[in-house]
Amino acid sequence: MSSQHHWTIGASSLHRVVESEGAIMPPFEIFGDCTQAHLDANRDWLVPRFQDAASGLLVLTIQSFLIRQAGLNVLVDCCGGNGKDRMRPHFHRQNGPWLDTLRATGVGPEDIDIVLCTHLHVDHVGWNTRLENGRWVPTFPNARYLIAQREWDYWRNAGPAALQRTGDFITDSVLPIIESGQADMIGDHHALKSDISIEPAHGHTPGQKMLRLGSPGHEALLTADLMHHPLQVRYPEWSTRFCVDPDEARRTRLNFLKENANSGRLVFPCHFPAPTGGRIERDGSAYRFVYDGEGG
Ligand SMILES: [Zn+2]
After folding, report:
1. 151-155, long-range: CB within 8 Å, 24+ apart, which pairs?
2. CB within 8 A of 62, min separation 6: which ones?
3. How far is CA 279 from the centre of its chain?
4. By the 8 A CB rule, do 188 and 148 touch?
5. What are the backbone angles phi and psi of residue 138, rounded to the nearest 5°?
6. Is residue 1 part of a domain?
7. Ligand 1: distance of its center to the CA of 24 in Å?
8. What is the Å distance from ligand 1's center to 121 Cα?
9. Structural domain includes residue 251
10. Which residue range(s) make up the domain with 94?
11. Average of pLDDT values for 94-110?
């Protein structure tokens, strides 16, 4: 099994910056369409890499991606963060070494130029902020934080019920960067460079973004939560219970898989277990995910 953490995509390097990886999610909690028969039918490839045999929990990675190019450091998503009050025990008051994992790439928090929040969910915004003298302050003092206007409009109007399941990550992880003046609201399409562009992947949340890196023939797509687990490549019609608009999420995923299958593009779905990067291949009426370097 590969534990690759680093790729070169054209003029950029791409690093995984992992906060945690393990069996954390009950399959029937995340996927309303999933039955034991589905799991049994796929057991030969699911267990143990993607599903823990003993607990039955699905294996998910919580991670950020760091893109480095001459003069530019871009961080995509910010995991769960440390010290935050959360409903799910996995994320509650974590005290992990994610900042050291980031520094091990050669980049410190002060070196980050841009933070892309692909969407405003609890496992993607945590390290936006850190606790300093009892206050939540931006972790990356010199960064511009990019948030889709469409995404922010949803969450600022969503009310407390939308945060009941997770804990109020908007107040501790999003408002401080808006109050510090470091947030830039972006439209559906946004180019950072000629070979780094941000595109819509709506449905899981109303303004979710994905990132396209490189140039035709050598492209990587960082797809955020367009898919959470390889089961959604096998069963692309499955949206999660956490999708704000499951029907739109399904359409977005089906279109994405159709467009990118057998294209050679490297796809990085945020929560897929190590090494995360792989390619979509057609497999009968559905698809399969072939990890980079593992053939198949
Ligand atoms: Zn997520």
Report:
1. 151/117, 151/119, 151/120, 151/205, 151/206, 151/207, 151/208, 151/209, 152/120, 152/185, 152/207, 153/206, 153/207, 154/205, 154/206, 154/207, 154/244, 155/120
2. 18, 19, 20, 21, 79, 80, 123, 271
3. 17
4. yes
5. -60, 135
6. no
7. 13
8. 6
9. yes
10. 6-291
11. 97
Phi-psi category of residue 35: left, alpha or beta, with phi > 0 → left and psi -120 to 50 → alpha = beta
pLDDT tens sequence across 124-150: 999 999 999 999 999 999 999 999 999
Instruction: Report how many helices (DSSP H) and strands (DSSP E) the chain contains, helices first.
Output: 9, 16
* 225 Cα to the center of ligand 1, angstroms: 5
Dist. CA 75 → ligand 1 center (Å): 15
CA 255, 257, 262, 267 dihedral sign is: positive
Task: Compute the distance from residue 244 Cα to the ligand 1 centre, in Å.
Answer: 12
Distance (Å, whole) CA 79 – CA 118: 11
Whose CA is closest to 69, among 39, 107, 125, 97?
A: 107
Tell me, in angstroms, the distance from the centre of ligand 1 to residue 271's CA. 7
**CATH number of residue 146's parent domain:** 3.60.15.10
Answer whether residue 258 is part of any domain: yes
| 296: in domain | no
Provide, rounded to the nearest whole percent, the portion of the chain with pLDDT above 70: 99
Domain count for the chain: 1
| Residue given tokens 């929040």 in the structure block | 117
> Which pLDDT score, from 0 to 100, does residue 55 have?
97
Q: How confident is the model at residue 2 (pLDDT cuts 50, 70, 90)?
A: very low
